[in-house]
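Re: How this chain folds, sequence and tokenised backbone to follow

Filed under: protein folding, tokenised backbone structure, sequence and structure records.

Contents: The amino acid chain and a row of whole-number tokens, matched residue for residue.

Body of memo: The sequence and its backbone structure tokens, given next.
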Amino acid sequence: MSAHKQEQEQGQKKQQQQQQQEKEKQQQQEKAKQQQQQQQQEKEKQQQQQQQQHQQEQEEQQQQEPQIF
């Protein structure tokens, strides 16, 4: 095999590896994004639950207070 052909093949392999790495990077970024979104949703859920609890507490307090007309 001529040296020239070897160089070409090595060049192609390099390109393929780089493309592979790029793909993997993108996939990792996608995963990270999805995880962040999930965490965000979890946070929002928790906040909503806290708000609901807070409302219930307020309602209970209102019921406990004697109403004066």
About this structure: The chain has a mean pLDDT of 89. The first helix runs from residue 3 to 64.
